[in-house]
């Protein structure tokens, strides 16, 4: 998609994502005559987007040599001479990246990015790592939580934002613990000889009741006042919602 002589002429379901076979072969023949500026091998299909610039390179060579690739719209590439816009402001000499807590190399403008929404600074590699993890749905400014303007500017600066959900959302059983509720008697003095975790369902004394407000605290029926009650509220919730609403409570 970064090849300078290849256009997406077909529909998305035609050829290779809209790139037609004949045009791909034509681009292969064109690039076979071009030598990479960096490795000297033929097949350099990517060129700098500045028309007067004659630099051509392979995509992997561009990555190694910090070529600026823009992963949107026309998928333009900018060589090392044309990639960095003038920096109006730079981080203080003693500033460190908030992500990795390492100092900035101010001589390498390409390695330092200014957040467009709040003017804070981070390493390019740290921002890219965040984008890889968060995906387009959750990638936001780590300082002010801005999304739209932040993503738009990061794309211009060559940050690749995967069009997918966050990695932590797709991990298998990532939130399994949140669906597990601990059954535990939190009474100040538990009277059950089987211990605080003993739970005998349907028992008039040793069934554990969970707080009907927070659902986090529990008690054996016999360990709370009014053991015949089926609804119970913990002491913490009583202090918030009031004793008229929540009775009985923990001793």
What topology emerges from the helices and strands here?
Elements: H1 21-31, E1 46-47, E2 56-57, H2 59-64, E3 68-69, E4 77-78, E5 112-114, E6 121-123, H3 124-138, H4 148-156, H5 167-170, E7 208-210, E8 218-220, H6 235-241
Antiparallel strand pairs: 1-2, 3-4, 5-6, 7-8
Overall pLDDT metric: 85
* Spatial strand arrangement across the major sheet: 1-2
The CATH class of the largest domain turns out to be: Alpha Beta
- What is the number of strand segments? 8
- One letter per element, helices H and strands E, the order comes to HEEHEEEEHHHEEH
How many distinct helices?
6
Overall body shape: elongated
Q: Low-confidence parts, pLDDT < 50 over ≥5 residues?
A: none
Which structural class is indicated by helix and strand composition? alpha+beta
Proportion of residues in helical segments: 10-25%
